[in-house]
Amino acid sequence: MKLRISDIFTTSRIVLVCIFTGVISFNPTFFQFWGVPIIIVIFLTDSFDGWFARKFDKPDKSGSFYDITADRVTEIVFLIPFVFNQVASPLLIVYFVAKGFVIDHIRMRKYMNTNKVPYEQGKGVLFALVKSRFMRAFYGFIKVVMVLLFYSRLVYPDVISQSLADWVSLLTVIVSMIRTIPAL
Fold first, then answer.
1. How distant, in Å, are the alpha carbons of 87, 123, 156 from that of 68?
2. For residue 120, what is the domain's CATH number?
């Protein structure tokens, strides 16, 4: 099996998010100022793995599903320290786990029937909610903002209001739900 550059980025995202969340779960101020750049690097690796796959590795089925798995791990594991330290609602984890299972199950069934990887499975205006560069960038951006607000609440509780973090997490869930519609 050939070593793919895109898979290195995907693997590094999983490893970084696990180390980061493990450390801040028990010592929220450990990274202090370095937390923000680490969070941004973790999210950038998601963009880089896709870019490298398209540019050098040629997207394939195993890489596509590995990336989706890493997306779910990142979404869920990233929230654990914030729920553990009571700056995020446990319902966020429940939502992302449930959504991940349902949507990924639907994608897998479509893959089994059509032999198309997830981002080749749909067409039309509704599918642009999932596939367009703008929507993927916007969704990624609000997820980064949500995590950064939770992190800021954890490290600097008097600087960022809880209601701002809650509103951004609600917006993230709403956009996530809208992006789910074409898969149903």
1. 26, 19, 32
2. 1.20.120
Alpha-carbon distance of 7 to 155, in angstroms, equals 32
- How many structural domains comprise the chain? 1
Q: What gap in Å lies between CA 68 and CA 88, rounded to an integer?
A: 23
Cα separation, 173 vs 40, whole angstroms = 20
Cα(35)–Cα(40) distance, rounded to whole angstroms?
9
pTM exceeding the 0.90 threshold for the entire prediction: no
**Domain limits for position 16:** 5-183
Q: Which residues contact 111 (CB under 8 A, 6 or more apart)?
A: 61, 117, 118, 121
If residue 58 lies in a helix (H) or strand (E), which one and from where to where? Answer: none
Phi, psi at 137, each rounded to 5°? -65, -40
Burial bucket for residue 67 (CB in 10 Å: 0-12, 13-18, 19+):
buried
In whole angstroms, give the CA distance from residue 35 to residue 29.
9
Give which of 80, 181, 162 is closest to 124, Cα–Cα.
181
Tens of pLDDT, residue by residue over 65-116, are: 788 888 889 889 989 989 988 899 999 999 998 988 888 777 777 776 776 6
Q: What is the largest CA-CA distance in the chain?
A: 52
Cβ burial 132-148 (10 Å sphere, 16+ → b, else e): eeebbeebeebbbbbbb
